[in-house]
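To whoever picks this up:

The parser on our side crashed when reading a file containing two proteins. I've narrowed it down to the boundary between the first structure block and the second sequence. Both blocks are reproduced below exactly, byte for byte. First block:
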Amino acid sequence: MPDLSLLVFVGLCVATALTGVIFRPGDWYKTLDKPSWTPPDWLFGPVWSVLYLMIAVAGWLVWSNLGMSVALFLWGAQLVVNGMWSGLFFGARRMDLAFIDVVVLWLTIAAFIVAAAQIPLAALLFVPYLVWVTIASALNLSVWKRNPQAA
């Protein structure tokens, strides 16, 4: 029987993912000038679903092996910062604040990878997340700079 504490980590990730449901791109985002390398809209749901599962497992691995630790604190911090992005970008339409948020998210993810290095699988599970957030950061910056009137 799997450890039920894993469900807590999955639940926290689902709660964070709901911010993306509450603050949807909508018509405003469709009108913005975006770079040609913007991922298609249909890709975001599947990618984030896989990433959130990996984030949950990484957090659970840290909890199971290290308990309360710097790595677990960073895991929680990245989840909070992650959850703020959709509200800033799509809800408040503050691409500038969303960019600051995504940079903080990137730094928190990177710090988690370092802090969780003693649990290699936990650290490794965050690498695709870091790659995706790197792309998201560049996209956020590009859209913000291309649409100064919308910020």
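<<boundary where parser fails>>
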Amino acid sequence: MPYRLLHNGRMRISARADYAVRAVLELAVRQDGDGPVKAEAVAAAQGIPHKFLEGILGDLRRGGIVDSRRGGGGGYRLARPAAEITVADVIRAVDGPIVSVRGERPTALTYQGTAEPLLPLWIALRANVRRILEGVSVADIAARRRRGE
């Protein structure tokens, strides 16, 4: 679960989601280079444990975010333009639903009695987090990096 509401009111981003977004951003920035980027290069550039990154890249490949090529000139590259890949896409590829409550989508929950008002709160939380993460593409982040923001 990429986001979790903690007892102190903060949201938590999983290490998998953080590493995945960083890896995709690294690929986006290097996309103009000489071909696919080795996982080792991404891991070194972002300080991500290589074995952990390999699993994440596999999930990103299955999710249609990256493509891979084997061999000496092999590696990873984005499967589509960075402008078409949102942060939400990346998180869903490695962690599943953006916001869940006890592992369920808020829309699948039911509450009774005094807890009934929680349901619209969880649904609103999910909608707003989705709105933000679906509104930011990998290209948007890469452009901010290039401008030094």
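After patching the parser it read the second block fine. The chain has six helices and two strands. The longest helix spans residues 118-134.
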